[in-house]
Amino acid sequence: RTQDRTEEICIGSIAELKAEIDKAVAAEVMTHNPYANGEKIDLHRPYVDDIFLVSPSGQPMYREPDLIDVWFDSGAMPYAQWHYPLENQEKFAKNFPADFIAEGVDQTRGWFFTLHALAVMLEDSVAYKNVIANGLVLDKNGNKMSKRLGNAVDPFETIAKYGPDATRWYMIANASPWDNLKFDQAGIVEAQRKFFGTLYNTYSFFALYANLDGFQVGTSPVPVAERTELDRWILSKLQSLLAEVRGHFDSYDPTKAARAIQDFVTDQLSNWYVRLSRRRFWKGELTTDKQAAYETLHECLSTVAQLMAPIAPFFADWLYGNLTKGQDAAESVHLTYLAEADTSLIDKALEERMELAQRISSLTHSLRKKSVLKVRQP
Fold it and tell me: In angstroms, rounded to a whole number, what is the distance separating the alpha carbons of residues 186 and 193?
């Protein structure tokens, strides 16, 4: 603006700024154009304070010291990241509005609002289609973490001690992202033991006997219709899980997805299928029944690796890599496409019958426990 504030100019680009400086140099308001030959231009203070322009009437113009609310910059992110509309019009059109964003609940009147406000003014559109407002991470007693209170947890120390996957799994499975989380490191230990430990042991069981028998995926595959009822049941549960988890992820609900995967691994796959199938793996030669058991367990583990990948990327990639070693498969689980559920393999009647058997087994186990009878005692 001019000193008397009667004339002003709003610069829209670096190219325009260079052109205006050239005018100022010609009018002897500036001695030279500092940006004339530079590819990298720093528009921050104090450098921008040395720029003086010239008004149409020939008066010197100075940088306006007052700033627009910095939330304007935040709301301009969708355009600034592509230098739109000066370039990348196709990229902008392809990526706007955003499919999904996430931030703390305190952004409701901040980033969430300014994104929409600018989008409506500039594009007559919303800025995003889906949003999750993250809740707060509290201490295990439900108090806000504070250095003053001494209840703050160092996230880097936690990740170094327990690993990023177990930490992330605990946080996502324990509370929905939009709810506050009472953070307790004992919960991470439980996730390590109950979920990751169970899954690791299940894979180790498979790998031990598969390597002894020289099992190869895809060699003499046994049709699902010819497999045992137990195989067909777990494959039905697997496809039901696949449909359920995809639905939860599509609805931006990772908590329900994580819990469904965890229940399948611990209760259905490990505690029921593997436990009831162990003798099939112990057989001496590689019979058709044993081949079917290997194929079934391999498919379950491979699919679980894909399903858990968004939440536990490192463990999932390790598991997938071991299961597909030597095969014509993607280099990483993160380079695979998650399959659609095969509804032809879903047998709800079979699932209901097996669920009844599980309930009977659980009730029997409870009665034996009350009577202080060991599991293997007649």
Answer: 11
Half-sphere exposure of 325 (CA within 13 A, CB side): 10
The residues with which 133 forms a beta bridge, in sequence order, are 103
pLDDT in tens, 313-339: 999 999 999 998 877 788 899 999 988
Instruction: From 8, 36, 9, 4, select the one nearest 21 (Cα to Cα).
Output: 36
Count of CA atoms in the C-beta half-sphere (13 A) of 12? 3
pLDDT in tens, 284-306: 788 888 889 999 999 999 999 99
Q: Quick one: which of 261, 251, 246, 258 has its CA closest to 339?
A: 246
HEC states along the chain? CECCCCCCCCCCCHHHHHHHHHHHHHCCCCCCCCCCCCCCCCCCCCHHHHCCEECCCCCEECCCCCCCCHHHHHHCHHHHCCCCCCCCHHHHHHHCCECCEEEEHHHCCCHHHHHHHHHHHHHCCCCECCEEEECCEEECCCCECCCCCCCCCCHHHHHHHHCHHHHHHHHHHHCCCCCCEEECHHHHHHHHHHHHHHHHHHHHHHHHHHHHHCCCCCCCCCCHHHCCHHHHHHHHHHHHHHHHHHHHHHCCCHHHHHHHHHHHHHHHHHHHHHHHHHHHHHCCCCCHHHHHHHHHHHHHHHHHHHHHCCCCHHHHHHHHHHHCCCCCCCCCHHHCCCCCCCHHHCCHHHHHHHHHHHHHHHHHHHHHHHCCCCCCCC
Domains and CATH numbers, the chain: 14-62 (no CATH), 70-168 (no CATH), 181-346 (1.10.730.10)
Q: Between the CA of residue 223 and those of 77, 79, 140, 231, 323, what are the distances in Å?
A: 53, 53, 50, 11, 20
Model pTM score: 0.76
Structure tokens of 309?
């990948």
* β-bridge mates for residue 183, sequence order: 139
